[in-house]
Each structure stands twice: as C-alpha cells, then as structure tokens.
C-alpha cells in the first residue's frame, strides 16, 4: 500500500465521538450500524483520509466483507449479467465484489486467486471446475470458501451453482436433428481447460450418436469467444463442401458472428443454413431472425452463488450444490434442413 | 482475512532455498525474477499455503501490484472491452486488475473506492469525472494515483484518458440533420451524475441549435443502459404524434433496443425511422441493417489508461491527460428523413 499520512482507528473514533469497536463495525458490518452513526464515522474516515490496513482489519474483524470473483473474460456478456446479480446480492449483504479476468489462462487465474486471497477476499467465486490440484489445495489450506458457478456435476466434491452443460446441449441438438439436419457444424471455444465447452461438445455427440450419426458427421472449429472469431470460424465451416446444414455455436456471441458469416456468403438463415447459440443473452433477441438458443438462468445463478458464498463465509459450513434448469428456446434461426442438391 | 495456518515469508524462503528478499520480489515484481526461481518460490508458496498478509506486504514492498477499476456496470459491453485491454496491459506489467461495479450508484462507488484502497490498491481507474469532492479529497490524502477514463475535458485537473463526448455526439447529430431529420428523439441514460450522458445530450443540442432548431424539436427519454429499457423508451417515443423521424440513442445497447421497438411497431429502418447509437461495440454490426454510430477507441483507451496508471504508480508523477479521437460510422440505420404525410 502506498505511504501517506496514516491516521489510526483511534483518531477516527475520537473524531466521530464513538468507540473504536463502533468504527470497526462501520467498516466490517455497516448493515448493523445506526445510519446516523454510520454517517458520522464515514465522515470522520473521509475527513481524516483513514484507510484501515490489513493489520488493523485482522484485529478488527475476521471478515473483510470482500468477495472475489474470477471469470475467464469480461469482454462479452456471458458472465457479465450473472456477475451483476452476484454484485447486487453481495452489496445487499454489505459485501463488495472484486472481479478479475483470467483471459481463459489457467496461469493467470492461479495468480489472481493468490492475489485475491492476499488482498483479503473472504470467499471466491470461480467459473467451472477445471483448475490445478495445487490451487484447490491452496484454497483448502487457507480455508477460503469458494463456489464454482456455470457448471454442475454430481460427482464433483466442490460446492457449485450451475447447470448440466452436456444435457442442455444434447436437448438443443435433439431439436436440431428433429429438423432433419445431418451435416452438423460446431463452433466451440477451446475445449482444453474449459469443462463447459467440453460438455457442450459431448452433449452434441450424445444426440448425434442416438440418431445414428458419428463424429464424421460433425465438422468442428475451435476459436475464442468473440463475434469476429465466430464469424471467421463459421466462414471456414460454411465454405466446406459439402456444406453443413446447421452451424451450432458454443454461445450466442459466436452465433452472432456466424450470422454475419452467413450474410457475407449470401446464405439466408434458416433457408440455406440454420444457426443456433447457447446462453440466451440479449444479443440473441436483436439478431434477425432471432436466435434459437439454450436459455441459461444467469441472474438466478448469480444470486444463488452469492447467497451460498455469504452463508459459507458466515457459518463456515459447506454448502450443498445447486443444479439449475435450462430451456431450449426455439426462434427463427433454426429451420428444416435444406434438401441436398 | 480468515484464520488458518499462517506460514511466514521465512518458511517460504527456507522451503525454496532463497532469501526472503527474493520471495518478496517473486510476490511484488515477478517480472524481474528468473523464471526457474519464480517457479520454485511459487511451488513453495502453494505447498505451504502461504498468502502474504498486508503487514508483510507493507514491509516487503510499497507496491501491492494491484490496480482497482470501478465501472458503473458490468452488465453490457460498454466498459467490458476497455477493461479487458486494461487487464491485459496490467498483466503484462505484472499487476492484477480488480474490478467492481457501482451499478451507477455514487454511494456504492464511494464505498468501493474505500474498499479497494483498504484492500491495498496501488492505483485506481475511474469512469467519468463526476463524483463527490469528499472522495477526491480521500484519494488525494491517501496519495492514491487515479485516472479518469471514458471522459475528457480540458478544464479538468485530474489525469484522464478519454474523448470529447459532446463534440462526438455533435458530429453524429450534424450527419443526422444533413439527412433532413428535424423531429429528433433521444434515448439517453440518466444525465444526473453521468457526465458522458450529459455531454452527449449537450452535443446534440449544439448541432440542433446550429441548424436553427430548439429544445422543442427534441423528444427525450431517460432510461437505464440495457436493451429492454432501450426498447421501452424508444417505443414511447415512436408512439408519439408527430413521430420523431430519428431515434438517437446514448449508446449501441439502447439502439439495439430501439431496433426491436421499431420492428414491433412494424416500422422499417431507415425508411420509416432512422436509429443511431454510440460506442461502436460489436452489437452494432450484428443488427440488420447495421447500426450508424460513433466509434469509440475502447481498447486504445484501456491500454493508455493502464500505462498511465502504471507510470503514475511507479514514478509517483502526475500524468498528462490524453484525448483520443472518435469517428462517425455511417451504416444502414441512418437514412433520409421520411416526407411528413
């Protein structure tokens, strides 16, 4: 922390005419303090430029009222809506959420977990289960409550709030196959290190196998989660011969890119090619035609994850995992497979 | 911070067979440490479950290599792309970015500034100039380097990386007026406490006055920044009599909502009504027709802000503000004003 004048908690207590215990409560559990007292103490804190340091915090309270969240990216809306819900729920409980983005890099995620713990995070929200045993050991050794979101697997010991990515993608793929599609294109995020992407791919294969198809009937492109990459990956699939009759995308952002690729190639959706997404974020409804996708309850997931983190932190008890349902949303981009020339 | 075993920096140094100074370097300036040494020390840190606490950090280094960023919302892509650029630039410099969202609430922003300083942020990225004198005094007293982004004003003493929101909106409005539009609708964020929204509104009025129009020729709706709110606000404007011939929106997200409202009302864009946005985020290119908007160099703004924060932190010198240019992007949603029946 940078140097500067360093008023103490005693200075604040004196200035506000309260006890140091009250100052600590204002800092650590503002929700339990009388509004006028809180105002007076905050005014004193501002006037004196007091910032409680870790030492003082350690004495003042076991809790820092700071919860960390590490997401793979901030760049698109996939995690943003859920995070906003986490943040509102935590704010209502008097806690602040600090977010960092790992850019889908396990090394960076490990670094950020260490940093958030060093910065005193009470608890951590993590995306997906897949990370090194070292990091999980680190969290267990430090007794840092953590919840995994965006993924759910009954066999996983870690508390999670999520949904069955594999079953959700299988359900969407079954609808797609019911429309007669047999040549399937998949635009997915890199599956290595991303259990959500892996399970969506496996769910698609489940449905294809059940319909008597095999991996040969699937053309696949791995890319990163942004519209431009989705456009390029879909373009590569749509210029193959024979052309897939449907491009299924790992999320709505990639699907928006696939829509651009189809338009650029003069293909109309869904007459010439069908396109599907995953997540049902707002972009799905602004596309023309609107996007067939899987609705993921992002806000509910965020709220539940926040509640779980607060309970684990306050009661130091392990929470039960929560599996949320998803729903296939049929809109205009999925239609019957065109008859092969 | 939660209790748990508390190994010391000496334990780590012993386990890694290095000096405590080297351990500190690995924590505070990993970029200057030999990779194999860094690996060895990190392994020891993980094995022992060591997390440097603030006291130790204060002794080990003036810097925590943590930079805080507080944005009004995480929910849409307006800030996400710029933040991702900040994060990559900081990561390259061995620093971690911690983000929090104020939900456009000045009280929450003040709380989060206090929290990030308490968590040891070396420097802060803030959005826009408008916040209480108390908070600025707090930052000055604590000597916390901070940069304002997304806004630029020559008369502002605070270091900023941004663009002239007023001039940018004026330039877009001049193009709109050149297409013959005289009945203007504006869907904007709440202007109070949001200098970006205020200046975009003022820029529109500048252009209207220069064209001999007045505030009476402007119908205005204030709302929050999401597609659904944009849809509702645009619907209210488009059902007025006489109907505005153009709906100018405070950003691309609101414009995407306005496109939905026009479609729902059976109005074709731009034949019946023109629509414009602001930001040129990816959603602008997935709309049909594509969106006329103002291109804001979000990535460049993020990179420059990050560099400025790093320099201010490391050299403790005040940085010069940077004004970036914006560009009007004419696409399909802006056309000639329909002839009034």
Fold and architecture overview:
Chains A, B: InterPro entries: HTH_LacI, LacI/GalR-like_sensor, Lambda_DNA-bd_dom_sf, Peripla_BP_I. Two copies of one chain form a homodimer. Helix content of chain A is 45%, strand content 15%. Chain A is built from 13 helices and twelve strands. Chain A has helices at 9-16, 20-28, 35-48, 54-60, 77-92, 106-118, 133-141, 165-178, 195-210, 227-238, 252-264, 283-286, 298-315; strands spanning 66-71, 96-101, 123-127, 146-149, 160-162, 184-189, 218-223, 246-249, 274-276, 293-295, 322-323, 327-329. In chain A, the strands form three sheets. Chain A has a six-stranded parallel β-sheet, with helices on both faces. A four-stranded parallel β-sheet of chain A has the order 7-6-8-9, sandwiched between helices. Chain A is elongated and about 85 Å long. The model of chain A is unreliable at 1-5 and 54-61 (pLDDT under 50). At the A-B interface, helix 3, helix 4, helix 5, strand 2 and helix 6 of A face helix 3, helix 4, helix 5, strand 2 and helix 6 of B.
Describe the SSE topology.
The structure is a homodimer of 341-residue chains.
Chain A: H1 9-16, H2 20-28, H3 35-48, H4 54-60, E1 66-71, H5 77-92, E2 96-101, H6 106-118, E3 123-127, H7 133-141, E4 146-149, E5 160-162, H8 165-178, E6 184-189, H9 195-210, E7 218-223, H10 227-238, E8 246-249, H11 252-264, E9 274-276, H12 283-286, E10 293-295, H13 298-315, E11 322-323, E12 327-329
Parallel strand pairs in A: 1-2, 1-3, 3-4, 4-5, 5-11, 6-7, 6-8, 8-9
Antiparallel strand pairs in A: 10-12
């Amino acid at each position: 922390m940078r140097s500067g004048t360093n008023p103490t908690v005693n200075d604040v207590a004196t200035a506000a005419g309260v006890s140091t215990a009250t100052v600590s409560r204002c800092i650590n559990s503002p929700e339990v303090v009388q509004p006028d007292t809180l105002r007076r103490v905050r005014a004193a804190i501002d006037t004196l430029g007091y910032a409680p340091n870790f030492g003082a915090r350690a004495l003042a309270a076991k809790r820092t009222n700071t919860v960390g969240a590490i997401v793979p990216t901030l760049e698109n809306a996939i995690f943003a809506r859920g995070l906003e819900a986490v943040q509102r729920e935590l704010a209502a409980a008097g806690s602040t959420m600090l977010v960092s983005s790992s850019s889908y890099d396990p090394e960076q995620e490990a670094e950020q977990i260490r940093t958030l713990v060093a910065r005193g995070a009470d608890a951590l929200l993590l995306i997906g289960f897949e990370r090194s045993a070292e990091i999980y050991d680190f969290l267990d050794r430090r007794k840092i409550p953590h919840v995994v979101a965006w993924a759910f697997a009954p066999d996983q010991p870690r508390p999670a709030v999520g949904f069955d990515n594999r079953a959700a993608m299988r359900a969407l793929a079954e609808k797609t196959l019911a429309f007669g599609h047999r040549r399937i294109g998949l635009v997915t995020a890199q599956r290595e290190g991303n259990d959500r992407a892996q399970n969506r791919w496996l769910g698609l294969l489940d449905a294809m196998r059940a319909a008597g198809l095999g991996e040969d009937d699937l053309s696949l492109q791995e890319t990163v989660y942004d519209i431009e990459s989705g456009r390029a990956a879909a373009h590569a699939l749509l210029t193959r011969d024979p052309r897939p009759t449907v491009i299924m995308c790992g999320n709505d952002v990639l699907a928006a890119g696939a829509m651009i690729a189809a338009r650029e190639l003069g293909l109309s959706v869904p007459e010439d090619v069908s396109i599907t997404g995953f997540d049902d974020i707002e972009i799905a409804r602004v596309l023309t035609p609107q996007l067939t996708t899987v609705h993921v309850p992002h806000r509910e997931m965020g709220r539940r994850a926040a509640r779980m983190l607060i309970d684990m932190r306050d009661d130091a008890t392990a929470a039960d995992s929560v599996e949320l349902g998803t729903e296939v949303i049929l809109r205009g981009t999925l239609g019957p497979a065109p008859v092969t020339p």
